[in-house]
Amino acid sequence: MSIDYAAFRRELEAFARQACPPEIRAVVAAGQKITKREYQAWQQILNDRGWGAPSWPVEVGGTGWDIRQRLIFEEVMAENDCPPLYHHGLGHIGPVIIRFGTPEQKARFLPRILDGSDWWCQGYSEPGSGSDLASLQTSARRDGEHWVVNGQKIWTSHAHEASMIYMLVRTSKEAKKQEGISLLLVPMDTPGITVRPIRTIDGWHHLNEVFFDEVRVRADNLIGEEGKGWTCAKFLLERERLPPANVARLALMHRQVSALLQKAAQAAGARRDFGVLQHKLLLCEAELQGARVMMAQATDDLIHQRPLGVQPSAIKMTCADVAQRLTTIALDAVGPEAAHRFLAEEGGEELPAATWIQNYMFTRARTIAGGTSEVQRNVIANALLGA
Questions:
Q1: Where is each Acyl-CoA dehydrogenase/oxidase C-terminal domain found (predicted)?
Q2: CB 156, CB 210: distance < 8 Å
Q3: 15-60 pLDDT, tens digit each
């Protein structure tokens, strides 16, 4: 049966306007930090509607939507200032459990991701293992019906508010480094876990370092085969940059262009460089339109099961670069009189100017997080030049 995508879009638009609470939309529209409070409330609303997991199969509680429907969903929600789906549970570990988990593991973990009961973080990077993730040293040794974990993870987003962490651990030092890694699911309230905040220049608390000291974890919390966690990790990372994960980001940046044009126009009477700001914004908008074309091509490739090639890397790199440029333009638009102000405190009243400053500082990491732009350039160069 053919799908009426225009009618589907209208249904989503009506739902977004009616169902998303105004106080949540206000946080998103203002560019403020979206916290667990907003994410969780919106996830519960979506789950009650049956839309809690747009990318999951119907048999595990998903919508069963095709790729085009998922893209339309992400775009419409972003256009209406609804929070993006919280990716760690729905987009990362959920699909891994669906693909590699046992029936018992699916029954235990998936419903709690759907309704927002469990809040997940990712334990991958370590102080000496970032780009070379396979060199990780956090260990897990088998002790009867438990794994005992020791080590440290770093740059762990949302660990301070998460109830669960999915983490790569070394279960064998004899095998070559990729083959000695396993994927383990660990409750964050387990004795022996310590979370310490990493303070970043944007003033928002989102990063942490996490320490594991003789942490005992149920043996059946291991996903997939022992020593085959690298397979699970590659499965996750390959899907992290698929088009549906980037659509909301593109739609949000289009919203930012509109907001910045208004900001620059309001300042036109007092500033002589309005034309310069407008020119910069138009260049950003042109690049976003180019990214949309790449997105449309990648979507068509997904639908027809053609290889995506370097498209996810190119889209990710473009989005990161434009995000940084947009927030730089925003800082110029609010003017130097705002730039010296203290940052708004997390959870407090945020001045629009202060929010732009925080977003400027936050986006400095966009060319690092999720795969550095340098790595993406290498991926693209290797594919195009055959290196």
A1: 227-385
A2: yes
A3: 999 999 999 999 888 778 888 999 999 999 999 999 999 989 999 9
